[in-house]
Write a structure and sequence with these properties.
By secondary structure, the chain is α/β, with parallel strands linked by helices. It is built from eight helices and five strands; from the N terminus they run ββαβααββααααα.
Amino acid sequence: MNLVCGIDEAGRGPLAGPVYAAAVILDAGLRLDGLADSKRLGPQRRAELSDEIKACAVAWAVGNATVEEIDEINILQASLLAMTRAVNGLAIAPREALVDGTHRPRLPMPVHAIVRGDQTVAAIQAASILAKVARDAEMVSLHRLHPQYGFDRHKGYPTLAHLAALRKYGVSCVHRRTFAPVRALLEVESQA
């Protein structure tokens, strides 16, 4: 069996919440209809595909890095950490890993970075979907704790509504303090 895992992350750009990554090993002969980069799919289709991927993948796992880790080691390193955690969570160790983008996590097997891999490699597309669905679910959970920010709608991304809520309600414990809009607000608050 060709044990190659695809790896992708979700949530590098938001101002709040953890960053997620997924690792997926697909059977080489498997074809999933509609598999694509998660950003090109609507929430309902992503959820459906997520269930299909989990049901038919040889192995899959999701990992994350916390807001505190993001602020401590930076978002790139936290994304790579989440990827490592996802691969380490696989029930079957892959022989090779393919990761979307230009940066590679340090893993005990060969790792190949593929620019736009989420558009061309099925296992990376599957990982993209699992990571996005898991992160979106986490942001909906965080919305229940902090409804004033609207995390269920914008998932922590810096939309106008999110920025307005930040100015109105201040910085929560789930905001990334090192991200420019949040850091700027904290600096204003510290001078008041």
